[in-house]
Amino acid sequence: METRFEIRDAEFLLVKLDYPERLDEMGALRVLAWKEEQGISPDFFSHKAWLDEDDLRAHHWVIIHNKEIVAAARLSFHKEYSSVPHADLFDASLLDGFCKGPYASLNRLVVAPQYRGNGFSALLDEARINFAAEQGIKMIIAQPVESRIKPLEDLGFIYLGKIRPLFQMPERQIYFMIKELGKQD
């Protein structure tokens, strides 16, 4: 799955990768893009790449410019809420009024600092949401930072509250949002 597009006379390519293609490059982009962000534990920047066990099971999308990954995001599938990354940091009883799985979770969205402001986050969100819908997913969970709440609401996500701090980001507030697929937006 590839989509070519242009921004300011530069050509980009949105690609869904096959595992484990370019996984180390995505992890390196996370370190590069997030090392200057406030509230993230510096321990995670002592390595060349920021990867975790969920990367091994997830689906990944990247945006490439001149053969270099400039943005990336992943989508994970879960039969039960308890297997969603950081499920233990949010009160699952708040999901009682919503459909029950299977679930997808949007995570690890990263855009290289010099490429921010080009709509890459929206392109990656739409690609992941469409893929989840094609796979029969009923509910997508997102755990964004504050700046991502409005864009996700524009895509039909509902804000449910804050989650307890992640150990990787002890001083950075993360929020909890959901989107039921198959409902009118």
From TrEMBL:
InterPro entries: Acyl_CoA_acyltransferase, GNAT_dom. It comes from the Bacteria. SUPFAM superfamilies: Acyl-CoA N-acyltransferases (Nat). Residues 13-182 form the N-acetyltransferase domain. This is GNAT superfamily N-acetyltransferase.
